[in-house]
Write a structure and sequence with these properties.
A hairpin with a 2-residue loop joins strand 9 and strand 10. About 10% of the residues have low confidence. It is built from 14 helices and 15 strands. By secondary structure, the protein is an alpha+beta fold. The protein is elongated, with a radius of gyration of 29 Å. The relative contact order is 0.10. Strands 7, 8, 11, 12 and 13 form a five-stranded mixed sheet that branches. Strands 1-2 form a two-stranded antiparallel sheet. The longest helix has 17 residues.
Length: about 350
């Protein structure tokens, strides 16, 4: 008998979900699973009572699983236990919100409790970037900071999409490429990786004129003294790192710029394991950084993601609207995605 009742309830829910087309240009796009909202009269469900009736049918069907949540219940004996419940108000809220976001009722039911105030903000943010609602839910992330404010972040693929839309060229000129690290010989301070102290001249890397590279067993003391006298900074290679660089060209803004991000940059930001380039312990030894699992396990991917998001905010900031990537936002707020 329970199975028969459940089947009847499911049939009732499915019948209620069937699109209705009137002479007032109410339309239903089967492929996009969305309803047009050209006038107030074209809503599939026109009364709050209809939402309530549909929610009642959903509770008694297999669709209810999408709305299950655990709550603490105190028994008559005073003990606390966890119960799984489905509340009608949650279903009604999902249906209302789904309709507002352009989802069909079936899509809203399938998404269930994933539809929330955060998903609403994600979809609205996605609209401004030309994304459909489903892409927005999967590629626009929501975070809550310590003040309770909701912050949205973008998947790197969306940042890349925005860059390509406004730029004439996007080119990764090096991808997780080996590079030496350079230090100032006068005070042993960190200067940067090879691609910060050198630049391409044709097909060769040429040292920035403000630096003078000291090479052991090659550079003479006289050459070093002369360079210092000329005001050039003597540098020496010590250690190595890996670098990813991207070039963005946006002619309409007069921009042609190369952006870099290195593993050493990630170490100094506390993201990747290794020795910090500037911070020392009480014995004047470089501080070791443990880093984060995602950076330690996937360094090449993380480098590419990071340099893309940084470059995108600079060159395509008007399109991206200042958005951080998922990883950047989680690092800033120090939380995980909801």
């Amino acid at each position: 008998m329970d199975n028969i009742n459940q089947e009847n309830s499911m049939n009732e829910a499915e019948n209620a979900l069937k699109p209705v087309k009137s002479d007032n240009s109410d339309t239903y796009n089967k492929n996009e699973e969305s309803y047009s909202n050209n006038s107030p009269s074209n809503s599939l469900i026109k009364k709050l009572e209809d939402f309530d009736q549909l929610a009642e049918a959903i509770i008694n069907s297999n669709y209810a699983k999408a709305f299950e949540k655990n709550i603490k219940v105190v028994t008559d004996e005073g003990a606390t236990k966890i119960e799984t419940v489905v509340e009608k108000s949650d279903i009604v809220a999902a249906l209302l919100l789904g309709q507002e976001l352009g989802f069909s009722p079936m899509a809203a039911i399938t998404l269930g409790k994933q539809l929330s105030s955060k998903s609403y903000l994600a979809v609205q943010r996605g609209k401004s970037l030309g994304l459909d609602p489903m892409t927005s839910l999967s590629k626009v992330y929501s975070f809550t900071n310590r003040n309770g404010d909701i912050i949205t972040a973008l998947d790197v693929s969306i940042i890349t999409k925005c860059i390509i839309e406004v730029c004439d060229k996007m080119e990764y000129i090096r991808d997780y490429e080996y590079s030496r690290l350079y230090y100032n010989m006068l005070d042993n301070s960190y200067v940067g990786h090879e691609y910060l102290v050198k630049s391409l001249k044709g097909s060769e890397l040429a040292l920035n004129p403000k630096y003078f590279e000291y090479i052991k067993d090659v550079t003479s003391p006289e050459e070093l003294k002369k360079a210092i006298k000329e005001g050039r900074i003597p540098i020496i290679a010590k250690g190595n790192t890996f670098v990813t660089s991207v070039r963005l060209v946006r002619s309409s803004k007069g921009i042609d710029k190369i952006f870099h991000y290195s593993i050493q940059d990630a170490i100094d930001a506390g993201l990747h394991r290794g020795f910090h380039s500037t911070k020392k312990d009480i014995k004047n030894n470089p501080i070791y950084v443990d880093g984060r699992d995602n950076w330690n396990n996937h360094p090449s991917t993380m480098l590419r993601n990071r340099v893309t998001s940084i470059a995108g905010r600079v060159v395509a900031g008007d399109r991206i609207q200042g958005g951080y990537s998922f990883d950047e936002a989680s690092e800033i707020i120090d939380i995980t995605e909801d």
